[in-house]
Amino acid sequence: MSIAVIDYGMGNLRSVCQALAHVAGDTPVVVTSDPERVAAAERVVFPGQGAMPDCMAELEARGLRQAVLDAAARKPFLGICIGLQMLFEHSEEGDVPGLGIFPGQVRRFPAARMVAADGSRLKVPHMGWNQVWQKPHPLWAGIGDGARFYFVHSYCVHPEDPSLVTGTCEYGVPFTCAVGRANIFAVQFHPEKSARDGLQLLKNFVSWQPAG
Amino acid sequence: MLAKRIIPCLDVTAGRVVKGTNFVGLRDAGDPVEIARRYDDQGADEVTFLDITASSDQRDIILHIIEDCARQVFIPLTVGGGVRKVEDVRRLLNAGADKVSINTAAVTNPDLVAEASAKVGSQCIVVAIDAKQVAPGRWHVFTHGGRNDTGLDAVEWARKVESLGAGEILLTSMDRDGTKNGFDLALTRAVADAVQVPVIASGGVGNLDHLADGVSLGRADAVLAASIFHFGEYTVRQAKEHMAARGIEVRL
Q1: At A111, is the pLDDT very low, low, confident or very high (cuts 50, 70, 90)?
Q2: Is B130 a catalytic residue?
Q3: Of B94, B219, B251, the CB nearest to A129
Q4: Average model confidence (pLDDT) for chain B?
Q5: How far is Cα B22 from Cα B9, in angstroms, rounded to an integer?
Q6: CA nearest neighbour of A11 among A29, A31, A27
Q7: Is there a contact between A146 and A133 (Cβ–Cβ < 8 Å)?
Q8: Which residue from B2, B40, B122 is facing A126, i.e. has the nearest CB?
Q9: Residue B210: closest CA among B220, B196, B197
Q10: Mean of the per-residue pLDDT values of chain A
Q11: Sorting pLDDT into bands at 50, 70 and 90, what band is A159?
């Protein structure tokens, strides 16, 4: 029994691991690029930093694509940041296909609409603490609606199926910041950097028993 | 709505947090990890460690502090001071930093900013700019604690490092640093308006109105302060409540 954090060479996974270890009790947290260890894990965390084309390329190069697809098909699975974006069909960033688990696109914040209520210009990337509005899901247990999480991103997911949306946020435009279906939950923000509420979300994930 | 951030800054040397004015008369302010935890509890949005250790043989001390801190504090950690090579950036990130701040080395070797951001992503690279006014409405980039004028225009330099891949700019007024007279708001505004990436205002905070002014008048995305928090004058929470009362969106 372990929690596998998939390492495909993109970015620093230490924060994710430390935060998971903090809430996982005796369950070991392993950082791995070995498909067999991913297959053997009880739960899988799929992080991602940087640019999606690089992330997809590294995932392929390390032979991890199938391991991710298999995990996403049957185990409690948590995508974070680019790990959310890669679940979709296609990204505008570098015009690359994603894993296509969910129908929909990844698009940049629309430059023309990046204006705050007071008329000032909103900067991209969207960096900092923003409010997340929930749709009912077990992973929000113990977290207030509108709680703030830490974001760093320039692209957002646009799911075709509105029933996938488990959380929304607003930055110039409303956007989807959390999705869920069956055993998969994925978020645009960084729970590992989001203080108490982020740890609560990870804690909910490590004990989550998805129905079916 | 996106909150404006408050970032306590910890100057660290030989494993301790210190605070002085312009590197003179350093006062011991305590254990870095303990202090970082306290700020996290108070609602700090990030914590910045600045390694002011002079000798290179003590550089590894900061790595242990970051490792300890990353196990206990779950908000973004930025580390700066003495970063010269991509390898330095990597070591700090591997120790548990989320962002690394590059100051003098960005001036002497701008390629470092491009190289580091290409390797680890712009979101991890902060460029620190120490600026001093040289004429009304004009500021130059200084190094070596404000002693060395590089001749670079601070606003132009901010644009330049953004184009090289800086994900954020930490802007310190060397005229104001340590004075408690408030940020250089004209400088802050000039830089914040010139770039797309977030700007953190630094240098000169003496009271809570200064923090609010940095955002509302200086248009900074985040404000950084050290001494007003270290010696218990104000808590981070008091600072946020004050900013909220002035109509600024904060995470409470």
Answers
A1: confident
A2: yes
A3: B251
A4: 92
A5: 15
A6: A31
A7: yes
A8: B2
A9: B220
A10: 94
A11: very high
Q: How confident is the model at residue B58 (pLDDT cuts 50, 70, 90)?
A: confident
pTM: 0.94
Q: Which of B40, B130, B177, B213 is catalytic?
A: B130
Residue B248 CB neighbour total at 10 angstroms: 17
Tell me the backbone φ, ψ of residue B232, rounded to 5 degrees.
70, 15
Using the Cβ of B70 and the Cβ atoms of chain A, whether some distance falls under 8 Å is answered with: yes
B162 touches A at CB < 8 Å: no
The structural domains of chain A, ordered by start, are: 3-207 (3.40.50.880)
Distance of CA A24 to the CA centre of its chain: 18
What is the rounded average pLDDT of the residues B203-212?
96
Rounded Cα distance between B218 and B211, Å, is 10
Distances in Å between the alpha carbon of B196 and those of A19, A171, B52, B167?
31, 15, 29, 9
Task: Give mean pLDDT, residues A79-95.
Answer: 96
Q: Where are the beta strands (DSSP E) in B15-124?
A: 16-21, 24-30, 47-51, 77-80, 99-102
Q: At residue A70, what is the residue type?
A: D
List b or e across B54-87, with b for residues whose CB sees 16 or more CB atoms inside 10 angstroms: eeeeeeebbbebbbbbbeebbbbbbbbbbbeebe
Residue with tokens 């600045």: B50
**Can you tell me the distance from the alpha carbon of A109 to that of B125, in angstroms, rounded to the nearest whole number?**
21
Amino acid residing at A197:
D
